[in-house]
Design goal:
This is Outer membrane protein assembly factor BamE. The protein is an alpha+beta fold. The protein has 2 domains: 31-125, 2-Layer Sandwich (Beta-lactamase Inhibitory Protein, Chain:B, domain 1), CATH 3.30.1450; 147-268, 60s Ribosomal Protein L30, Chain: A, CATH 3.30.1330.60. The protein is 32% helix and 23% strand. It has helices at 2-27, 50-54, 62-69, 120-125, 170-182, 202-222, 249-254, and strands spanning 83-91, 97-106, 112-117, 147-155, 186-196, 230-237, 260-268. A hairpin with a 5-residue loop joins strand 1 (83-91) and strand 2 (97-106). The relative contact order is 0.11. Mean pLDDT is 89; it is low at 16-20 and 22-28.
């Protein structure tokens, strides 16, 4: 009889134990259950350092989590608890803001064992966004330049080397030459060579031929042609014209072609 009573008592105690365990299990909140945001002291949420959130992982200690996220936003305490909860505001690519709750669960060694978001899209909002591919810009076709030679000749009055002494509308033609050289896409060099006729001594004619070349050079520079591209030289007497006899007005007129400055330019357009 005593044995039956003891067996019945043991069975009753086992049943009560199982009932209490079931009740406790039913009363314990699920890990996926998040606290009411209204109970947080940061109900407005916090804009976190997203790079820090990406560094969250299992195995971190509470001090490490504090460094990354700061203190939890609810009153669950810091030590002796296994759950911290946060409210974070996360910005989407279009600038809109989603408020998310973030939970950190700790094991019995106070190390992170699991992290959860209350909304599936929250995990996507902290993922590093890949930059949009930039469409390749078409490579322009290289400009093909055509080599050109530009040349002209100018004559001066007898014994003169200034611009005003140019013959045959020389100033107008020289201005047109300067414009043509400026208009080139590429100017490589300009060679100017001055001459004098045979009348006079050699040294004076050499100086006169140089002065005439310098006059043409100075005019071109003043009208926008780069001086660094120009070389001006005097070559003394030019004896192309067949004008025999001593100095006379007729011989001077005949030697007009020898009082010359030639211009040769190389470039491209």
């Amino acid at each position: 009889m005593n044995m039956n009573r003891k067996s019945s008592l043991a069975a009753c105690l086992l049943s009560l134990t199982m009932l209490f365990q079931a009740a406790a299990s039913a009363a314990a909140p699920s890990e996926e259950q998040f606290p009411d945001p209204a109970s947080s002291y940061r109900t407005e949420g916090l804009f976190p350092n997203v790079a820090n959130l990406r560094n969250m992982s299992n195995g971190l200690t509470k001090p490490q989590v504090l460094d990354l996220l700061g203190a939890p936003h609810f009153s669950e305490g810091l030590f002796g608890v296994r759950e911290w909860n946060y409210i974070f505001n996360l910005r989407d690519a279009d600038g809109s803001v989603t408020q998310c709750q973030y939970k950190v669960l700790y094991d019995d060694q106070a190390k992170v064992r699991r992290t959860l978001w209350n909304k599936p899209q929250c995990a996507d909002l902290i993922k590093e966004r890949q930059p949009q591919p930039v469409a390749a810009q078409p490579v322009p076709e290289p400009v093909k330049l055509q080599a050109v030679n530009v040349s002209d000749q100018f004559t001066f009055e007898f014994g003169q080397a200034d611009v005003a002494s140019l013959n045959d509308d020389g100033q107008t033609r020289l201005a047109r030459l300067a414009r043509d050289l400026r208009d080139l896409a590429q100017l490589d060099r300009v060679q100017i060579v001055g001459f004098a006729d045979r009348i006079g001594n050699a040294s004076a004619n050499q100086a006169l031929s140089q002065s005439r070349a310098d006059t043409v050079r100075d005019f071109l520079v003043a009208n926008g042609v780069p001086a660094a591209r120009i070389r001006a030289e005097g070559h003394g007497v030019k004896t192309r014209a067949q004008c025999p006899g001593p100095k006379s007005q007729a011989v001077i007129r005949c030697l007009k072609g020898d009082r010359q400055v030639s211009v040769e330019a190389v470039g491209a357009r």
